[in-house]
Design a protein that fits this description.
Four copies of one chain form a homotetramer. Chain A is an all-alpha fold and about 230 residues long. Chain A contains nine helices and no strands. At the A-B interface, helix 1, helix 2, helix 3 and helix 9 of A face helix 1, helix 4, helix 5 and helix 6 of B.
Chain lengths: ~230, ~230, ~230, ~230
């Protein structure tokens, strides 16, 4: 996947780094597959709101289903944001080790599991008792995804997986500080508030997904350029 | 994914471009995954028309189900055409930025969502009131996919993502002018006519899918060669 | 996907061939995705034969379901064989054109559709009238897949997509002659006999899948080596 | 997928090795796809434990469903471990032949099939008679996956697919001796004990999945470093 030939300076490198680079490529390919499938399977959880033959109620049925679309949207944007964070992290590191591969597998475990709490959340929208459980359960899975990203970054740092590129490590630290850590705290707050008011919890999850997905630096740059 | 070594002149390029090229490769891998899954999930929406044990009615049941196959075919060809347009666009641009990645995510959102309106459209075929809603809803999603392709191309142009390759930018402009813009207008017309006659709307969507999928230049070339 | 750097001689090639090679790579990535998903979705069509709580009948229920496993196996091996033929063909050609991309899309259309006739075939096993329709319908889709592989090879040949490599073109012709054409004829015969005896048709499809999947040259080589 | 340009020494290699390397890359891409999809489809087998409108029973329903999550977890970790073993094996070998491709297809067949026995196992948890059948059936599929990995390694060795790299072959032998063979034996023991006590069989499968997924060398290294 990686355009290795483009790294002019790596032409002379030893066989071993090439091998670990290869493993990094397969880790990316496998992870991209799981992210892409999990994000696309979400649509299977959406049920048609009215029975066959009740066509005249289809429009109101579809409009009435907005919590389902909202859950779909939050899950889609969260997996998308996690994919982008994952992409940045793996891009930044120089090589991977066996522990990193397993931590990655645990991240994918929660990611592939997300369609299930999504389905529960859209199924129990409006049912106060059920909604409370659904929102906390859903938030826990979102929390675990962010947590695994943090753990993977920590491990990469402590094991020197970033190689000699200090710039990469610095960027990763900035991402942790300005995106992942605030996200993590917001999930805990969102889940706790979700116990009191499920609706509020959902709104918080939505805001986190949008926040994680915003490319702050690019937006600032575009804004400055046009100002 | 990209055979970087084959770009002889890029051997000497700096580290930063190689990094963004890498991100472009993962964007392609992830998008290819979502397109491939969405296009393959469509088949899960097709139900067997008769019950177990009613085998003698299977043939007539299958033949009677033609709107389902038609919806499958339109969705398949539309996602296929969008994949080809996406492939051409990403191929043409030199590097991507964070905004492009997010616009791409929104395109994938509508693409991954398409199996749902497809299922509704085949479920309510023949039910006039339902068909009207289904055809407009379906057309809206198709419209959004084309629109996102246009927005992505516009952004690439205004941010200079095409790099120095004027040929690439020219081709992209031609594609916008001769394929995407007419497609966009046709979706609006098709949706509006679908309000009056759902059947007509479906025929228009079918024609757009076929039109978007035709490789005009290649067909002309083949035709000339044989003439 | 292609280790382009390994083609020493291509270092100096012009920009345009690199671009078409890139498109070939994305065509492979997208097709691999569709093949992999279609082959994996087949398992969703298998239903658990007995109800919850009837555990003592589970073993006999599973054993009784053998036509379902057989249909799964035939579909799996056929998609697998088509993937291998596709892999050989695309590997052999030098570059692709727009028509080849569309023909490929039609091949994928039938491939992604296969889980549906597979489900019908396992649903109506034992129901004579239904089985007849199911076997012919299933055979038609298998036939179309082989036909599209032939058409793609024909197009590649007539448009000079194999480049200058005569060896590649010769191998492709051998494959057409010894694998695809016999397979095509066997599908027609199998479908026709399936009208008389569905069971016979299924056996023929099974034999074709196994035949297409046998790597004749490698087996001969292994045999000679050990003899 | 492989960063071929990074292998400095391969620049001068002949055309034929490049071709087989290309086939190895597509085998990896296709296999990664199937592994990623099978591992992600598992979530579709999890049903929501309570009906709509019974929200107050949702929490106890979810907690009561632990065998379902356990089956999900075992299947996820087993496919993940098989993916990692597959990744190491294919990484180690130098080129592939036609027989290796077909053996790989059979491995994927069992891997793609796994969601079905997983669903059966979680469906019949608690039903003693059904559980017994489910645990043995599930164990058989896990056993076949490990067996195919062994057969693929054996074939690679006897056909000289490892090339001249003795280090690669030595590592593969160590993996067979310390991971795959013990795993194989443990599956047979687990299945046999599962006939007596299904619960015990499940625990053994869980332990094997965890054992296969542990990167023994890396863990030892980390441990030494911190000691």
């Amino acid at each position: 996947m990686e355009p290795a030939g483009a790294h002019g300076g790596e032409m002379a490198e030893q066989k071993k780094p090439a091998k670990t680079k290869h493993r990094k490529n397969r880790l990316e390919a496998f992870s991209d597959g799981v992210f892409a499938i999990a994000i696309t399977l979400l649509v299977l959880e959406i049920a048609i709101p009215v029975e066959k033959g009740e066509g005249e109620r289809l429009l109101s049925g579809l409009l009435h289903e907005w919590p389902v679309y909202l859950a779909y949207f939050i899950s889609f944007m969260t997996i998308g944001a996690v994919w982008m964070e994952h992409s940045s992290l793996v891009d930044a590191i120089d090589h991977i080790d066996g522990v990193f591969m397993r931590l990655n597998l645990v991240l994918l475990l929660f990611c592939a599991f997300l369609p299930f709490p999504t389905r529960i959340m859209s199924e129990f929208a409006g049912d106060v008792a059920g909604e409370r459980v659904a929102v906390v359960f859903y938030g826990l899975v979102l929390l675990m995804m962010t947590l695994m990203l943090l753990v993977m970054g920590r491990h990469a740092e402590s094991e020197g997986l970033f190689g000699d590129d200090l710039e990469d490590e610095r960027k990763e630290k900035a991402r942790v500080k300005y995106q992942l850590l605030p996200g993590l705290i917001a999930y805990i707050v969102g889940g706790a508030l979700g116990l009191l008011s499920p609706k509020l919890g959902i709104v918080i999850y939505l805001l986190i997904a949008i926040y994680l997905a915003i490319p702050i630096r690019d937006v600032t740059r575009l804004y400055r350029k046009r100002a």
